[in-house]
Design brief:
heterodimer; A: alpha/beta; Rossmann fold; two-stranded antiparallel ribbon; 14 helices; 11 strands; 15% strand; globular; B: alpha+beta; 4-stranded antiparallel β-sheet; 3-stranded mixed β-sheet; rod-shaped
């Protein structure tokens, strides 16, 4: 009974603490039409220190969403266009020689910001991608022999184009795994497209975005998210979903055994739980239900499942595999 | 001596008309036809080809033609297959009373094989048949069987034997048999499915009521209320899955809500309240008391009864009447 009362109180606190997200959402909707799910997932990742890989054809307002998000959240934004001739120093910074005092001084790169847009991340070679990987994982950067912590919150939103692969460097599995979610940005609906056209086909400058979030709002939200209750049944459900990607036959999906080359890593369980907590936070709930898990399962698992040869031959995508897993694993 | 001279004169008188007659007939070109057959080579491997040249010498007023060898029927009893035939007509004028035919055969069988009989027909200049000469040639060819060491080339094959039953009829019979079997299996499957589903639909409500009664007894016997809610959630989901044929056991409450709303189910609000209450107990660590649990069981029983009652009016089970 004590626990229930605590959760009720926590629910009230969450409702109060999540108001800043509603305000930020209002600001975003001034410029962004549609793409509500993408925005919701960016909020989720920001709340639990995650990074996002955005995939979509050009022109779907990926950059605009991120730029507007950073402006509304009052966060420092940096856009880095990844190119084949890029070097790690272009990203993290380098040591500059000062002839006056004959010493080297560190010069920080564009990675020193809160929100990093790594545009077309797969256009740069592996060494540049790895430099970003260190920053994403450790939240710190080493230039020369000095280590600099990155500003909090630190969030990387990388984009890649799904249709143009010529001259690209496919992200290694180890790097892809470090992204909390992979979001597929889809085309807007007919009505949304109409609205976008009418709003954007003007010579006037973009509507100004007012920063509505204070740094302590995010840290407070994170503290509350950590207190969200996760029932052991839901914990087991999360693990069941992840294990089902590795051993589908154990869950009555023998047909998937040859469809999956390898399944999700334990990092998937961690991110699935974190993202489900953030999802419950957005719903003003102090506890997770299987609904929260299902809601973010596709985005959290799709880049962690590698379809096998048979799946590729039958044009079965990771989303199809996840759909089948969600339909077969019994909900608690 | 005089007697000898008389005999000599007599012989001369007898032979003279004969000589004249012979000379006359030759002058008219009436020559007895002569047929020669030549086969090359005289020894072959089975399936090899031989060349057979038939030459006919005849009078200049006649034309020779080779008959038979034209169809397979003629050769059916012989291990020969006619590949090609042609008339060789490029003889010089001096031998105008001569015709030659060249035939190519594929040879099968084993050992000495005699050429099949053929017929030569002679016609006069008006096209009338003057003579038909059946010929049985003494020419033969020796056929050797194939051995592994001699198999170097592909051999021409014998034409396939015609089946005694028409091929299309066999196909039609096979297709018919499989078709009938398929239809029977499909009917059995559909029948089984219909019987099973109707049985499930009839029993799902009864089964759920029985489980609820048992759960009520367990609650009275001291079962913790939170466990009661967990079981209640399972009973409701199983009932919804069997009764409305929706995926309820693998679905979250929100998905069930969406499906039931789509179906326009009677008692929708009550069902959702029960499921949400059970969710609170299961996932939010809510701890209801025994009385609360008993009320929920009663409510569940009523919901199930109401959905079963609406089934009797011929509408879809539990669906709201929308007049």
């Amino acid at each position: 009974m004590q626990q229930a009362v605590e959760l009720e109180e926590l629910g009230v606190q969450i409702q109060e603490a999540s108001r800043f997200l509603e305000k930020a959402g209002e600001q975003l909707s001034r410029r962004i039409i549609g793409q509500h799910e993408v925005i919701r997932r960016i909020f989720i990742a920001m709340l639990v220190n995650g990074h996002i890989l955005l995939e979509g054809v050009p022109g779907l307002a990926k950059t605009l969403i991120i730029r507007t998000f950073a402006a509304a959240m009052n966060l420092k934004f940096q856009r880095i266009q990844f190119t084949p001739d890029m070097l790690p120093a272009d990203l993290i910074g380098t040591m500059i020689y000062n002839p006056k005092d004959m010493e080297f001084y560190p010069r920080k790169g564009p990675v020193f910001a809160n929100v990093i847009l790594a545009d077309e991340i797969n256009r740069s070679p592996a060494k540049v991608q790895s430099a970003l990987l260190e920053a994403m994982q450790e939240h710190q950067v080493t230039i020369g022999n000095q280590t600099f912590p990155l500003q909090e919150p630190f969030m990387v939103l990388a984009t890649q184009n799904p249709i143009e692969h010529e001259g690209t460097y496919i992200l290694p599995e180890a790097q892809v795994d470090r992204f909390m979610m992979k979001i597929i940005v889809d085309y807007p609906s007919y009505d949304e497209e109409l609205e976008i056209m009418l709003q954007s086909a003007t010579t006037a400058s973009e509507l100004p975005i007012r920063p509505v979030v204070q740094p302590h709002d995010i840290s407070r939200a994170r503290t509350l998210i950590d207190r969200i209750y996760v029932d052991p049944r839901v914990q087991r459900y999360i693990v069941d979903l992840v294990v089902a990607t590795r051993k589908p036959a154990q869950y009555g999906m023998a047909n998937l055994e040859t469809m999956i080359e390898y399944g999700a890593s334990p990092r998937a369980s961690i991110f699935l739980l974190l993202a489900a907590k953030a999802h419950a936070f957005l719903q003003h709930r102090a506890y997770i239900t299987p609904e929260d898990v299902k809601a973010i399962a596709y985005d959290t698992l799709r880049h962690r499942i590698r379809p096998g040869y048979e799946a590729e031959a039958d044009n079965i995508k990771p989303d199809d595999i996840i759909r089948q897993i969600l339909q077969h694993v019994q909900v608690p | 001596m005089a007697g000898f001279h008389k005999q000599l004169l007599f012989l001369f008188l007898v032979l003279l008309p004969m000589a004249f007659s012979l000379a006359y007939s030759r002058a008219e070109g009436k020559v007895q036809p002569e047929i020669t057959v030549r086969v090359t080579p005289d020894s072959v491997l089975v399936g090899d080809r031989i060349r057979c040249t038939i030459t006919v010498h005849h009078s200049e007023q006649e034309v020779a033609a080779l008959e038979l060898f034209n169809s397979h029927d003629t050769l059916a009893d012989y291990p020969f297959e006619l590949i090609s035939r042609k008339r060789l007509s490029s003889f010089p004028l001096s031998v105008a009373g001569k015709q030659a035919f060249e035939l190519e055969f594929a040879v099968f069988g084993n050992g000495h094989q005699s050429l099949p009989p053929f017929m030569v027909t002679l016609r006069d200049i008006n096209g009338r048949i003057t003579k038909k000469i059946p010929c049985t040639s003494s020419a033969s060819v020796f056929v050797r069987a194939l051995t592994d060491s001699s198999m170097r080339d592909l051999r021409p094959l014998k034409p396939p034997l015609k089946p005694s039953i028409p091929f299309l009829l066999i196909i039609a019979v096979i297709v018919g048999v499989f078709g009938v079997a398929g239809i029977v299996l499909l009917l059995l499957f559909l029948l089984k499915r219909t019987v099973r589903h109707s049985a499930e639909r009839v029993d799902s409500g009864q089964v759920a009521q029985r489980k609820l009664r048992k759960l009520g007894s367990s609650l009275s016997a001291g079962m913790p209320p939170h466990e009661c809610y967990e079981e209640l959630s399972n009973i409701m989901r199983t009932f919804l899955e069997n009764h409305y044929r929706i995926r309820a056991l693998e679905a979250v409450t929100q998905e069930i809500e969406r499906d039931l709303k789509k179906l326009g189910v009677a008692g929708f609000e009550s069902i959702m309240n029960l499921l949400k209450q059970a969710d609170l107990v299961k996932f939010a660590d809510s701890r209801p008391d025994v009385e609360e649990s008993r009320q929920s069981l009663h409510k569940a029983s009523e919901v199930i009864r109401s959905t079963r009652d609406t089934k009797g009016d011929g509408s879809i089970p539990g669906r709201l009447k929308t007049d």
